[in-house]
Amino acid sequence: MMKKRTPHTAASALAIGAMLTTGAAMAAELGDTQDPIKLAVLEWTGAQVSTQIAGMVLGKAGYTVEYITAGSFPQYSGLSDGTLSATVEIWSNNVGDIYPQALAAGDIENIGSLGLETREGWAYPKFMEEICPGLPDWTALKDPACAAALATTDTLPNGRLLDYPADWGSRSGEIIADNDLPLMAIPGGSEGAMLAELRASVATESPLLLMFWAPHHVLAEIDLGWLDMPPCASDDPDKCVQLPQVEKVVWSGFADKWPAGYEILKLLQVSSSAQEQMMSAILEDGQPLEEVVAAWVEANPDVWQPWIDAAVN
């Protein structure tokens, strides 16, 4: 795994807006400031933002931090044996079997929500509320005029739902069938293709309904409406669209080795709107990730300093 060592005197970080939780931390000793806290760096930009903000704050508190590239599923082995110290953005809809097993064994500890305001489901550009009166109520999709507006030559007489790419898996087709909706789920070619179609829809006010999620950097520029989802008939929650939870997890020995760092990470919170703005700066404007975060940290000590103060005082 690729390692990047960052002393607390040179905090290399990523920008993201964060908010102080209402709970108070227990004052704690710093513990081992020589052995680095090893933070897992995951594949997506949002998680990298969250991880870097965590590392920056820990650095400000006096710790040395290493950023270690780790996959979403392989990270749990590292967290279980202590070769990784913490991961701060675990999505509950992408954990597999190894995560609950590691929790049950006591090898890792869930230290609470990261605070992201998450969404997943069917979304639409706001102008669609004029084309399909009644949105965001899902029953508005039953109106033949709404289905006709969404229809394409591939879906006639049904409306088109732009679904996740085929290799991501899909629950939309079953939900459409369960509720006898006049829609057809058509897989997107890629995330980039979905974003291009969304932007084109907004620019030309061409009807669009799509499966989407938040936080996402495009939401820094486009305000989407979110459908109140139709009922899911399956007893298997994995086949239903649910509100994902985003949690922070540490190695089981973290609190003993870095007591104040443990309290800081428990207090760490990240807002979706700020994360989206940071991701947009990185992905759309091409700004270096570390520079974006460093600028945010420099401008917002009132956000992160209380985490440190609550942990060590």
Automatic annotation (TrEMBL):
Single GO MF descriptor: transmembrane transporter activity
Matches recorded under Pfam families: OpuAC
Any one GO cellular component localisation term in the record: ATP-binding cassette (ABC) transporter complex
Stored InterPro entries: ABC_Gly_betaine_transp_sub-bd
Span of domain ABC-type glycine betaine transport system substrate-binding: 35-298
Protein name, entry field: ABC-type glycine betaine transport system substrate-binding domain-containing protein
Source organism per UniProt: Pseudooceanicola algae
